[in-house]
Design a protein that fits this description.
Largest sheet: 5 strands, antiparallel
Order of helices and strands: EEEEEEEEEEEE
Number of strands: 12
Strand order of the largest sheet: 2-3-4-9-6
Structural class: mainly beta
Shape: globular
Strand content: over 45%
Helix content: under 10%
Radius of gyration: 13 Å
Length: 107
């Protein structure tokens, strides 16, 4: 989670569950771009406000198909070592919990 006081910013290089390297850029507490690089091939489940209307592309700019599996959750197949960018999320407001903002969750 991101502290609410950090209205805009970014990070890269955090490692999420499943050994996925994650980067996120956010503005006004809402994710604008999510970058993922899995160490292993397989399904990637991503939870983020507004993600169900997003666009996912690989490092070659090719669109990656995904399935919506919840209100703010999608799943797609990733290949080990490939990079993926998720953008065009329709998130006007972030989810706030105890003065912290939940930006993204890899499950």
């Amino acid at each position: 989670t991101i502290p609410a006081i950090w209205g805009s910013g970014n990070y890269d290089g955090l490692v999420a569950r499943g050994n996925v390297v994650v980067g996120v850029t956010w503005e006004n507490g809402a994710a604008k771009e999510v970058r993922l690089k899995p160490a292993y091939s397989g399904d990637l489940t991503v939870e983020c406000k507004g993600i169900t209307s997003s666009k996912i592309v690989n490092e070659k700019g090719e669109s990656i198909p995904y399935s919506v599996i919840g209100e703010n959750r999608v799943i797609f197949t990733g290949v080990a070592g490939d990079s993926y960018t998720i953008s065009q999320m329709n998130s006007r407001r972030s989810i706030r919990r105890r003065n912290r903002t939940k930006i993204i969750q890899i499950v």
